[in-house]
Specification:
- The protein is an alpha/beta fold.
- The chain folds into three domains: 163 residues, P-loop containing nucleotide triphosphate hydrolases (Rossmann fold); 83 residues, 3-Layer(aba) Sandwich (Rossmann fold), CATH 3.40.50.11420; 111 residues, Rossmann fold.
- It is built from 14 helices and 14 strands.
- The strands form three sheets. Strands 2-3-1-4-5-6 form a six-stranded mixed β-sheet, sandwiched between helices.
- Helix 13 crosses helix 14.
- The radius of gyration is 24 Å and the shape is globular.
- It starts with 8 loop residues before the first strand and ends with a helix.
């Protein structure tokens, strides 16, 4: 399952034939998911985007039954549990007032990953929710439970309101990328190379996000290619408040931008915005400790066609190997696919900026490494370190922390 939508994800869970697909159809007012009386109709997670007033666009994920069995059933439930790491809110469906081991185990996984839960007692037309179940959910789990009939959803607005108040604001309220670094009227210079990695006829997502944030902060964005920056500054006399560059041309831009002008990278900016920045600061210098035979895990958050100049698969391994002088092994895992090897096999984990995924997905992606004591870093921070400009690239954010 690839988390490629940078918007809140809501997972719908429950046993087979409990009405998960009917619920997603009721929420979207569309026949998105196949509905059947036969248990196990949903085999793979099904995703659907919708708009919720007060939150904005969200992604609903319909999952396979948590009580599935047999060889195929185990694969389905495994996929269902993988979804927990990428969601911001869980909806757990119950029917006939049944609450047992399947639900208890699932709830433990929700709480371990910090996922809030809304309970829905579905098929209320067949059996209404009991007072005992309501009391257990509200007192033991400190959560709301709605008695509901997905086929005739007369209280749909009540359910949507509970979803609205239960999903964390951090999942949908976007904080400013640059708000703490710039003020109204400031000029920000963006260095955006147009090379084989640049998409045809458009800019990459981090560049677009930064441009929008500059405008939202009532500032001025000037966009140049890397070979134009020095001449522009010389001829215009403009001194930008901040320069942001693509990590792949860090060294060239560092040479062309005066040392008293703050400089950082798009990837480092994203690391501060949605990554584990403090852990990156601790983990990046560990690059110097790498030894022959060490394995390094590179985590991409999207899937794309690999070119001969691919930053994560080609350039970063080459730069780190040249910097350390060691013979290293590199594994790449794209999207939010499972990491097949034990995380403790790795001496370092390098995460991309994560422009295509939510903060929750990125944090959960790195959690196993951090909990195991494996150093983590970020594309831009690792590149800046091996190219000798690490201190300059992180300086705007370190100074920001010191000033607080």
């Amino acid at each position: 399952m690839k988390g490629r939508e940078n918007k809140p994800h809501i997972g719908i869970f429950g046993r087979r034939n409990y009405g998960k697909s009917s619920l997603i159809n009721a929420l979207t007012n569309q026949d998105i998911a196949i509905v059947s009386d036969s248990p196990g109709t949903t085999t793979d997670p099904v995703k659907k985007s919708m708009e919720i007033a007060g939150i904005g666009p969200v992604v609903l994920i319909d999952t396979a039954g948590i009580d599935d069995f047999g060889e195929l059933g185990e694969l389905r439930t495994k996929k269902t549990r993988q979804i927990i790491g990428i969601i911001d809110l869980a909806i757990l469906i119950l029917t006939e007032n049944r609450f047992g081991i399947y639900e208890s185990e699932l709830l433990m996984e929700f709480y371990e990953k910090g996922v809030p839960v809304v309970f829905v007692h579905n098929k209320s037309d067949l059996e209404s929710m009991s007072d005992d179940l309501k009391e257990e959910i509200e007192i033991r789990y400190n959560s709301r439970i709605i008695d509901f009939n997905a086929l005739q959803p007369s209280n749909l607005e009540e359910l949507i309101e509970v979803i609205r108040i239960s999903i964390p604001e951090t999942a949908y309220r976007q904080t400013s990328l640059l708000g703490d670094l710039i003020s109204s009227g400031d000029i920000v210079l963006l260095i955006t190379p147009i090379d084989i990695e640049a998409p045809e006829g458009r800019m990459i997502l981090p560049q677009v996000q930064v441009i929008r944030d500059i405008l939202d902060n009532n500032c001025i964005a000037i966009i140049l290619k890397e070979n134009e920056a020095a001449e522009f500054l010389k001829n215009s006399g403009i001194r930008p408040k901040l320069v942001i560059t693509d990590s792949s041309v860090f060294q060239k831009v560092d040479d062309s931008i005066p040392g008293d002008i703050p400089l950082t990278g798009f990837s480092i900016l994203l690391a501060k915005h949605k990554g584990e920045f403090q852990k990156y600061l601790e983990g990046t210098p560990r690059i110097t400790e790498l030894q022959n035979g060490d394995s390094i895990l590179i985590l991409e958050s999207c899937t794309h066609q690999v070119s001969c100049e691919d930053i994560g698969r080609i350039k970063i391994p080459r730069w780190i190997s040249n910097f350390t002088g060691k013979k290293l092994d590199f594994d790449v895992v794209a999207g939010l696919n499972k990491i097949s090897k034990p995380i403790t096999r790795y001496a370092l984990v390098i995460q991309c900026g994560g422009c295509m995924i939510t903060r929750k997905q990125l944090v959960n992606r790195l959690r196993p490494a951090i909990e195991a004591g494996v150093p983590v870093t970020n594309y831009g921070m690792a590149i800046a370190y091996v190219q000798g400009i690490y201190e300059r690239a992180i300086a705007p954010f370190v100074k920001q922390q010191q000033d607080k």
